[in-house]
Amino acid sequence: MKIKKWLFLFVAASALTISCTDQDDNLFSVSSDLEIQDFVWKGMNLWYFWQGEVADLADSKLDNSENYISFLSSYPNPANLFDHVLHPDDRFSVIVSDYEILQNSQQGNALSNGVDIRYIYLNSGSSEVIGYVRYIIPNSDADGKDIRRGDIVYAVNGQSLYYNSATDNNLDLLDPTSYTFNLADLTVNNGVRSITPNGRNIDLTKTALTENPILINSVINVGSKKVGYIMYNQFISNFDTQLNTVFADFQAQGVTDLVLDFRYNPGGFVSSAINLGSMVTGQFEGQLFTKFRYNAKIQPILTDEQENRYFRGSLSNGAAINSLGLSKVYVLTTGSTASASELVINSLEPYIDVVQVGTTTTGKNEASVSLYDSPSWTFGDEQLNPNHKWAMQPLISRLENSAGFSNYTNGLNPDIVLAEDLTNMGVLGDETEPLLAAALNNIAAAGRALNADPNKIVPIEAITDSKLQRITGNRMYIELNVGDSDDALRYHKLVLPQE
């Protein structure tokens, strides 16, 4: 891949200079054994949100070809170079050696046994780990087996789980395609948890699985009100039409109130978040939903269309969005609620009353993009480098709402605080399930908060969960839509980003 000292970015029909050096515009090439590192550096130099704050991503790296090549050579593993140029505040950028895994994960496709599970310390200060089952994915290997929400996993293949640090743990027991979960009963005495193996051992096998993000949808009668409830577990654009159908049913049944269950939703496509926000409302079509903030190279040359995203009246396929026109919505959240889920909450806040029930969210206010080794940085480019399958998913923008607010890196705090209780997980979608019951109580009580007993709440100190183990984790992503480009000159004709 060639490097040009004068780097141009073409936006729409205009050619705009992004950066240059005081040197001439001679081109230089890198050897084939450094082409991946070259791709990593150039992609991060152009797109990375914190590019201007990372010394080794400065444009001056290109001032001297020998120094640049020596710098790339010092990182034989491209992943180490990627890690080296990450900003300290970046918790979510990722690089992969096989872009097919990345693409499949973005569309909800992954190897899975169907157990959505979160791993926690048994007790604070202990390295002993247990997992608690959050839900079972329909039509998976686990579906129909003797494992369900609230079950406690204390061992895998008879080996107890532990976690001392990122480099000292045995969670790799979860990596194989097949293994056995060993279950236990959990008791809590004076805040101290203990487990007792119960003899239940569940054999599980991972298969290629596409998870429908719409796990549950129903309409619940609360007095004279009809409450729509939807548990939505990932923002996947392939399911936008199905999501719109759910809202058509809500319309037909005369839904007056709505509960969005995002407690296990790690994020996904910004376009799907905008669509969902438009389904909840409908009265704000054409008004600002969110604003993208890029690095100093890209931000100044953006058009309004590229910088801003607006409430919509139709999906990308032209189908009219089925909207409820609500002025209030309830959202169930936990520490697993991230990215595009938080975007919906933050973007609706300036327009309607958003009542958040549960615990504080993750705090991810940046969006990422898939970058491939091609002149246009996209997968569809005919000049995609055939020599490797590396791709990056770096954070490239920060999203703020119409009021200019984006400062929620510590998470969005709930209006009604209620943690999930390991001793009373309840049945998802059931009116008595604690978090949903809290929202329904608030609806029935005309806005009065649930008087929850804090002594019944068992704090959960989390390590990871099955969604975070996917390559996309809790990320929010957008797509590039690029036109023709000239590889020799490294021109990039970009329309940012495609929704």
Termini separation = 28 Å
- Shape by Cα distribution: globular
Helix content: 10-25%
CATH architecture of the largest domain, by name, is Alpha-Beta Complex
Structural class: alpha+beta
Q: What's the domain count?
A: 3
**Average pLDDT metric:** 86
Q: Report the C-alpha radius of gyration, rounded.
A: 24 Å
How many distinct beta strands?
Answer: 27
Query: What profile does the largest beta sheet have?
Result: 8 strands, mixed
Residues in β-strands, percent: 25-35%
Strand line-up in the sheet with most strands: 2-1-27-26-20-23-16-17
**CATH fold type of the largest domain:** 2-enoyl-CoA Hydratase, Chain A, domain 1
CATH class of the largest domain: Alpha Beta
CATH superfamily of the largest domain: 2-enoyl-CoA Hydratase, Chain A, domain 1
**Number of helices, counting only DSSP H or I runs of 4 residues or more:** 9
Note down, in words, how this protein is organized:
- 17% of the residues lie in helices and 31% in strands.
- The chain has helices at 35-47, 65-73, 78-84, 99-106, 240-252, 270-280, 304-307, 340-348, 434-444; strands at residues 7-11, 14-19, 94-96, 109-112, 115-121, 128-136, 152-156, 159-165, 168-169, 178-189, 192-205, 207-210, 214-222, 225-232, 257-261, 288-293, 308-310, 328-333, 353-358, 366-369, 371-372, 391-393, 395-400, 416-417, 462-465, 477-482, 493-498.
- The model is unreliable at 1-26, 471-477 and 481-499 (pLDDT under 50).
